[in-house]
Every structure is written in C-alpha cells, then in structure tokens.
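Per your request, structure below.
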C-alpha cells in the first residue's frame, strides 16, 4: 500500500525556516516508520537526516514525533497510523538537522542527578547484596533506554528548560530507591527545588509517551513522598 509521509525538514546551514516535504512510499504489511524513512533516504531523497541504529526498540536513537505522538520510529507500525503520516523531531529539543535533535541538554539533566552509585562505605570482598523485595523496588526504572520521548512530551519541560524532566527524575528514583546506594541525601537536595520534582504537575504525558511502558510520573510521586518524609 502506498502511504503519504509529510516530513519536517530543516537544515540550519541552508534554510531560513523549517518546511515540510511529502513523500509517497510503498509500505508492505509489517512496515515500520523507520522502514519508510530508510526507503525515502535510500531511494528517493538522500538528503533526509535522522538517527537510527538497532531497529529493535533498544537503542532509543530513532525517537521522534509521529502523528503528534512521541515514539520510536522502529516500533511504530505504519498500518496503525491513519491518514497522512506526519514525522517531526522530538519537541523542545534543539534541532541539528531534519529529524536529528541535540540530545546534549537531555544528558546534562541526567548527569545533574548523579546517575551512578554513591557508596560511603568501602568495598569488601563480598557483593553488596539485596533482598528480592529491595531488588523489586527498582523494577520499572532501570529499563529506561534514554530515548527522550518522555521529556519531549512533558509540558513542564516545554515551559521550563531548567526542569530536570521525567527521564532524569526516573533515573534519580533508580538510585534513591536502591538499598545499596548511600547518596540519597545529596541527590534529594538536587531534586527538591522549583526546577526539580515540584515542577512536575502529574499530567502523565511522560508515561503515555514511553515506548518501554515505564511510568516516570509514578516514580516522581515516590520521590516527592520521600522528600516530604525526610523533611517533616
Ligand atoms: S507527569 Fe510530570 S514529568 Fe510527566 S509529563 Fe507530566 S509534568 Fe512532565
Ligand atoms: S522513561 Fe521511557 S520515554 Fe523516557 S527516556 Fe526512558 S525509555 Fe525513553
């Protein structure tokens, strides 16, 4: 079946402003949006730029906005999309070219929450063990592939570019609720301010956008409770 793709195009080195270009693409059953972009790039217009890598929803490279929703192009089945298929870059991320955005501000926010173990006690010759219950607390946080779909769909991030955003906050949850980590106090100081946890208004856009089915809103709620319990 031939489908129409309307794709965002912008080359800051040549264009005054962005535009949209249409392509007709033959999409056999089972085609993904990434398959269609490859078809365009390889057979119709080699100037189209986008990121891709694993093709299996693991690397997070092909995150973009498809018919208004953030998703991975490799996980978006063409046959589930109605009408003309609009393909645009992630919202609120600086555009490098066409569908390629600058992920650096996103990674800066991630770095800000100290996304690594902080161990006050020196290592011994034994592993740092957890009970099954302690380990279970981390389910739904370590699976994040850092695609950026959640942060790009977050209205609070659109309004406040200093907001840490749902992906960084989910990463903070992953360490704050890890029984082996000893950096909770220094992380909570980073999270407990107007550009941190409290900027989240519990709208759930991030949970809806996450291609891995994760729920940053829930994790942010748990972190808010933690801050309140520690303070009062
Ligand atoms: S729930 Fe919070 S973090 Fe998620 S999209 Fe809404 S404001 Fe952003
Ligand atoms: S929480 Fe989900 S949407 Fe957000 S960066 Fe991780 S995998 Fe992507």
């Amino acid at each position: 079946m031939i489908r129409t793709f309307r794709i965002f195009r912008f080359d800051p080195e040549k264009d005054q402003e962005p535009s949209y270009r249409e392509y007709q693409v033959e999409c056999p059953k089972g085609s993904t949006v990434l398959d269609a972009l490859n078809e365009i790039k390889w057979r119709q217009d080699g100037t189209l730029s986008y990121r891709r890598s694993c093709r299996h929803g693991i690397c997070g490279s092909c995150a973009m906005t498809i018919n208004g929703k953030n998703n991975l192009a490799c996980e978006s089945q063409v046959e589930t999309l109605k009408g003309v298929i609009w393909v645009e870059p992630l919202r609120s991320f600086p555009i490098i070219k066409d569908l390629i955005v600058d992920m650096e501000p996103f990674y800066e926010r991630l770095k800000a929450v100290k996304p690594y173990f902080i161990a006050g006690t020196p290592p011994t010759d034994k592993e740092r063990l957890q009970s099954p219950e302690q380990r279970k607390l981390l389910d739904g946080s370590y699976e994040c592939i850092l695609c950026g779909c959640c942060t790009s769909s977050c209205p609070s991030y659109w309004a406040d570019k200093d907001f840490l955003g749902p992906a960084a906050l989910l990463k903070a949850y992953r360490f704050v609720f890890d029984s082996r980590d000893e950096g909770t106090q220094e992380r909570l100081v980073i999270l407990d301010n107007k550009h941190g946890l409290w900027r989240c208004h519990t709208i759930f856009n991030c949970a809806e956008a996450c291609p891995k089915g994760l729920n940053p809103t829930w994790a942010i709620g748990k972190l808010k409770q933690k801050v309140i319990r520690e303070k009062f």
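The two ends are 61 Å apart (CA to CA).

Regards,
D.
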